[in-house]
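Quick note —
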Amino acid sequence: MSLQNAYLYYDLENLFKGTILSLANAVEAKDPYTSGHVERVMNLSVEMGKKVGLKGEDLKNVELASILHDIGKIAIPDEILKKPAKLTDEEYEIIKTHVHHGARILSPIPGLKGVIPAVLHHHERWDGRGYPVGLKEKEIPLIARIIAITDSFDAMNSDRPYRKRLPPELIIKEFKDNSGKQFDPELVEIFLELKELEELFK
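Predicted structure written out below.
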């Protein structure tokens, strides 16, 4: 009976994670330029979570939050989400609402209670100049601070409609220049030491 219960729990966990990935893939399907973004951000975020000592439920929340961090973009109009040119101030304000949409979409799911703060706050900045609230430093949830780094890295290391991917040396410079400004300085050091970066730069 114990073995059967273990298998049932494992199957339910896989079903839950599969459903979450399907939701995230629905967002990616809206924009071909973000293909693979969720998986890359997830892998890097989990590695960072391990490096800072997260385990068990906390590490699981890192994985789920990194999968779902942009789920709210499903509510953003395609003409803004896919716009190849620079966004207007009004369009940028609309893009910023995706964090609220994400939190709202996930709020009915009890198992994602520990994920919602990261989804809502992954665009906050270490210096307090981010959104949606303007939290600063360690007021920002740890998982949100992790995703802020991995999400930004993948954006810089990927082609976008308005620019090509940045060269590795420029990406590293961006992180060093913005350590203590946009990003948690301790987490930046940990991130730049990840062995996975070398492979992703290729």
